[in-house]
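Good morning N.,

You mentioned wanting to compare the apo and holo forms, so I went ahead and generated the holo version with flavin-adenine dinucleotide. This is what I fed in:
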Amino acid sequence: MQKNLVLFPVFFLFLLFSGFVGADQKQPKDAIEVRKINPPNLDNANLGKRILCHRPMRQGTPKMYTEIVDNKLIAHNYGHGGSGWTLGPGAVKYVIDLLDQQMQAQKLAKNTPITIVGAGAIGLFSALELLQQGYQNITIVAESFDNLTSHNAGGLLAPVSMDNDPELQKLIDQIGIDAYIFYKNVALGKNKLIPNGAVIVPTYFENREDSGLEAYVGQVMQPAKDVILDFQNGTTRRMVAYDDGIFMDTGSLMTSLYNAVADQVTFKKKKIHNFNEIPDQVIVNCTGNGAKDLAKDDKMIPVQGHLIMLKDQEPADLQHMILVYFGKGKTKTGFNVKRSFYMFPKKLVGSPAKDVGVIGGTFIEGADEKTPNNDEYEIMLNGAKQFYGLASTKQ
Ligand SMILES: Cc1cc2nc3c(=O)[nH]c(=O)nc-3n(C[C@H](O)[C@H](O)[C@H](O)COP(=O)(O)OP(=O)(O)OC[C@H]3O[C@@H](n4cnc5c(N)ncnc54)[C@H](O)[C@@H]3O)c2cc1C
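and this is what came out, ligand included:
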């Protein structure tokens, strides 16, 4: 009798958690959600600009520290690979805080002249952070201000395509979480200086590991869900969905960042060959791939990427992001390539409303402009079509 009294609640709890009590018989609790998605139109007439650009990847970790060389205080912040935008605001806060500590230790006043080398995302975020910390005498020197890697980047918030020393992963995770909070505030209209450029959209990967976002779950993001994407043409794909993913509209963010600092910063167009050319004592080095020569950093390796902008699409159909990996191979020129398909709702600044969407992408370590690997555009396009079940073309 006593044994039965003990077993009854155990049996009841089993029924409760196994879904027998109170479950909807037609719709089991763990049924996978099916989401209908209209694929983008990938006909030739709907393909726009082809973009070749190079992620500034540093083996081991991005360079994010200060040093004193020839009496100059130099803060380095480069080498974030395919995650420069993802980490940007957090990485910049981390480095400018280090610089501020050094300047205070050296009793350098807030009006000390500071030169930022580089006008990409990292350079512009650095100017904004310095201004917010009360620094007043800032010059940005850059070889180029237009059509930078930072303008062309796809816009997925995810710490991917980096090479991190596992010991530094905790720091990179925290920087990414800080950056997520920054972009979420932009997306929610809470950042007065950066009024637009980030949007919260569902983001789909084949599995949780591919996303790089698991460290953010429970901190700033909700857990991913298993879902089935139904492309309504007979093709379905099982994916995981992060419904609070963030798309960073990189062209628009570059404009917002530039506008946020333009009145308070001096701009000079110039290539720097040696830090000693810069008269200021304090320098922030945000030169991306340029750091290989300027900082003589052999750990800097460009990671080539191919993108195709889409034209004349239905914008409402493309308000999400997808990233799937296809595996590794060799380009015709002999480089190792990691191939993927991704689609983000990117728009080029000033383009018509229906010219939305970008597909990518390749990851080719060591290839630069001299080896454009143009065959990869077709391989990528075929991969995209196969993913959506639009066509099965031979490569
Ligand atoms: C195909 C592709 C897709 C990407 N997608 C994403 C994505 O989805 N999400 C994400 O987070 N990141 C993405 N990235 C990565 C991201 O674009 C970069 O990490 C980021 O833009 C780097 O910013 P940056 O300011 O360091 O460099 P850059 O934008 O390259 O700017 C460097 C600046 O330094 C200047 N400079 C360089 N050398 C010198 C010199 N010697 N003297 C003077 N000026 C100099 C340049 O002129 C430029 O102004 C992508 C990159 C590529 C290539």
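Residues 44-388 form one domain.

Happy to go through it together on a call whenever suits you.

Best,
F.
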